[in-house]
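Priority: medium. Attachment 1 of 2:
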């Protein structure tokens, strides 16, 4: 059973890498970095619901990052630049 789980995770991780490790995928990651609060605080002390929403977005970002194994430097270097096509 453990071997099957590792196999599933490996194939999933490979799929994430094939999806995002290319110029178009990097543009999507740059957009998601901003949208999912990858490098900004999510807490809004005046609106707990906004905090929950932002944390939900951030959770998606963290899952993608986990499968891609991006370093902090690689995340900060993602830039939304659609002029370089």
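Attachment 2 of 2:
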């Amino acid at each position: 059973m453990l071997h099957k789980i590792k196999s599933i995770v490996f194939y999933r991780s490979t799929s994430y890498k094939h999806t995002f490790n290319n110029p178009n995928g990097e543009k999507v990651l740059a957009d998601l970095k901003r949208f999912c609060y990858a490098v900004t605080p999510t807490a809004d002390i005046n609106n707990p619901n906004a905090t929950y929403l932002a944390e939900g977005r951030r959770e998606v970002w963290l899952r993608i990052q986990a499968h891609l194994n991006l370093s902090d430097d690689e995340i900060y270097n993602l830039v939304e630049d659609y002029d370089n096509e």
